[in-house]
Specification:
Layout (H helix, E strand, L loop, with lengths): L13 H13 L2 H8 L3 H15 L15 H26 L5 E5 L1 H6 L1 H12 L4 E5 L3 H10 L4 E4 L8 E15 L10 H4 L4 E4 L4 H12 L6 E5 L2 H9 L5 E4 L10 E4 L5 E9 L4 H10 L2 H9 L7
Parallel strand pairs: 1-2, 1-3, 5-6
Antiparallel strand pairs: 3-9, 4-7, 4-8, 4-9
Helix pairs in contact: 1-2, 1-3, 1-4, 2-3, 6-11
Length: 307
């Protein structure tokens, strides 16, 4: 099939593609114009210029740009893909890191495990320019690893495209409550369900675990606040707003106003390092995180559980 070249390099622009695709998706040119902060007439001129460059009508002339022609429908299918890919490329540019090592993990691990790990990386391996990114869900963390946005991922990942997986240990999930409430609970879900809870977004892995465990106990949890992450949930618990399911390591060096209740049965998750492609810097990181002396210190501090 022969390639068709545009009449001039500037005859068609990405902005014209974006205007056209948005007009179709939003159902009206006025709505699309509001999205881009331009007048409908200015948008109409750009789409008209696109039609001239294509040599075809995109909209039925009798429909006042509300109904696509047959060619317009075919062109929209291709143009929408072009626009979506362009925005994805821009997103990569915004999230791309020039750091030597980019580590993806959970907010809790970023707060509790990463500082001593990074200290050792800098001390023993002379690695600087490390970037740590936290993700709210394991789906987002795994997707970041798949895209190459992070060099390695640490967390309770169950699936990923990683070629190398190293299990560090286990984390335990416990119920954080205000110290004034600690005598109220005996670890049973029946007692835990009597008080208000701090929840997480539905896609959160901890939220899914909470639904699973409470469902298994045949109790209904009453949520009063939805927190974006574990640190926020703990702050809400500290203020006596409710109780929350959190990784036990999140309570390391926490406020004295917080107390812990272990639900029965105990909830544990495997923590692993996932790597797609090895590099000298990742190999150094793996050497540090595999060091048994450091692992023993993590366990002694209650940051990791013995498998």
């Amino acid at each position: 099939m022969s390639e068709q070249t545009l009449s001039t390099p500037n005859s068609i622009t990405l902005r014209q593609f974006d205007y056209f695709v948005s007009t179709v998706r939003l159902g009206s040119m006025s709505a699309a114009a509001r999205k881009f902060g331009v007048t409908p007439s200015a948008m109409s001129q750009q789409i008209g210029a696109l039609e001239v460059a294509l040599g075809r009508k995109l909209f039925d002339p009798q429909s006042r740009r509300s109904s696509l022609t047959k060619f317009g429908r075919e062109f929209f299918a291709q143009a929408s893909t072009v626009v979506d890919h362009a925005y994805q490329a821009l997103a990569i540019g915004q999230s791309f890191s020039d750091g030597v090592l980019t580590i993806g993990t959970t907010s809790t691990i970023a707060h509790k495990l990463m500082p001593p790990l990074i200290y050792r990386l800098r001390l023993q391996c002379d690695i600087d320019n490390i970037e740590v990114r936290s993700f709210a869900t394991m789906y987002d963390l795994g997707a970041a690893l798949d895209r190459g946005t992070v060099d390695l991922a640490i967390g309770p990942l169950t699936r990923s495209s990683a070629k190398f997986v190293h299990t560090v240990g286990e984390e335990e999930l416990v119920v954080a409550c205000h110290r004034s409430q600690e005598s109220r609970f005996d670890g049973t879900w029946q007692r835990l369900a009597e008080v208000p809870w701090i929840g997480y977004c539905n896609s959160s892995d901890i939220a899914k675990t909470l639904v699973q465990e409470s469902g298994r106990a045949n109790v209904e949890i009453r949520y009063v606040v939805t927190a974006p992450d574990v640190p926020t949930a703990l702050s809400l618990v500290e203020h006596g707003i409710g109780i929350a399911l959190v990784p036990k390591m999140a309570l390391h060096n926490c406020s004295r106003l917080l107390s812990v209740t272990r639900p029965a049965p105990r909830i544990r998750r495997k923590l692993s390092v996932h790597v797609k492609d090895m590099s000298p810097y990742i190999e150094k990181f793996m050497g540090v995180i595999s060091d048994m002396e450091l692992i023993r210190k993590f366990r002694a501090a209650g940051l990791l559980e013995v498998r």
